[in-house]
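Async update (no meeting this week)

Hi team, since we skipped the sync, here's where things stand on the single-chain job. The sequence we agreed to prioritize is pasted below, unchanged from the tracker. I ran it this morning and attached the output directly underneath so nobody has to dig for it. Comments welcome in thread, and please keep replies under the output.
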Amino acid sequence: MNAALTPTPGMSTTDGDEFDDGAGHANQFVTFAVAGELFAVPMAPVQEIIRVPEVAHLPLAPRTLDGLANLRGRVLPIINLRRLFGCEEREHDDATRALVINLGQPLGFVVDRVASVVTIEPGEIESADSIQTVVDADYLTGVIKRARADGGHDMLLAIDFARLIEGQFSHVGGGAVGTDRASATGMNRAAADAQTPDAEDGGASDELRLVSFSVADQEYALDIAEVQEIVQLPERVNELPNTPAHVLGVMSLRQRLLPLVSLRTLFGLPRLPYAEQHRIVVTSLPGGLNVGLVTDSVKEVLSVPRSQAEPMPGMLAAGSGLEEFSSICRLDGGKRLVSIIATDKLLRMPAIEVALQAARDAGPVAHEEAAMNADRATENAEDESATDDDTQVVIFRLGAEEFGVPIMSVQEIVRLPETLTRVPRTPAFVEGVINLRGTVLPVIDQRSRLGLPAIERNDRQRIMVYLLAGMRTGFIVDSVAEVLRIPRDHVVAAPAMSEEQSRLISRVAKLDGDKRLVMLIEAQHLLHGGEMQQMHQFDTGAQPLARAA
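Output:
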């Protein structure tokens, strides 16, 4: 912390040291500099003075918000005072600090430097009505003139942060009241999202919801309800002695040993060296058991008509060792075959039984070793006792930021084609349309919806398909990262920095020992009422064209 700052009782420094609570703060002020001006704020609401932390940028928030930081498990909005005052911006340096001030909720304010802590008598504060400064006089409570050793005077502008925030962020505080209640409400929303597809789409029961993945260029799938998580394969797995080649070993996934089975080896194919795109599909087996199926890559989330799924011929299954497959989907006019794995039959396979038994026999020593080798060991602190309160989310990325949506609100995740077709009378915010198995799917760039700059199209981008007011709509994202189960107590209310942001992003998930912030999107608010009306008018004219084609 700045050497000029005098430690004061009750306030934490950059290193988090807490001083004994002694004398009151009634007449004490923290002084700081912004753009060449000196300011003062009463000590009482100042909780900490910290170095400027890394932030996750919150879309749809005012530009004066740098983003959200994680301060020892607490989501802290970081506000840039230079930007708020309309001053020229500059890079942070060793003197830059953030004042953490409690204004009903803690907020961090970035200042150029902290000067000192001073004691001010009430008679020293003069009116600020005639002062010309970078700050509107309405946000000042007065001016303090302090004599310097050289005979001159320093002029300190006493700033009213509560009034400043009320004027600049009219919605601040909405996410601060009742974090537990807000989190619970958010979880209820997630549960409602899970019901939305069936409730709004009368034909949803006639469709299969599948997660597809590839093994040696062949495509396989599991029912989405049987997929617990999709996580990256760690570079190092805890191997088990005296186990078949298809049992890669075990890993610790939130305090539980997860046996890993290589589908390549299980299918009699050679193993591949570790690659970044390898994924573990964690599936739930009858009896509450979990197993991790190691795949070459995860491809898509699909919704396909049940009529396109044909039962695996009994003779083929019995004679070729394919008992674990329940059916085959014929897509794209029969050019694409997807084999659907039945988890109840998977459990009865001797190869899977061996893997599960090996995990049971591994004992606490293997559990400890697996935890040490886990890709994210910090997740071991998570409490798994309340799995009924977990929510499954699909994590996707836009730039460096991570976002999540409830998995059951996602109809499909498909690759972005090289070109999108523009259709007459398309709403301006629609990038174009694609033909998704005979249905015209309007596609919107998620970046543009969140006020982020556009990027060039690339092969990592995906289209996430949602059912919005009965209409399927696709949103382009930079990439889809994983599927996770998030415990209820890891989700907190997001600070409400604007009306649009608080409606769309009302919750934040804290993961990896509170080192990772994932902003949770309420999918039903991706489009507002007027936009939905435009979409329905477009859909009325577009679908007959698709059927005619």
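Quick observations from my side:
The radius of gyration is 28 Å.
The first strand starts at residue 28 and ends at 34.
Reply here if anything looks off.
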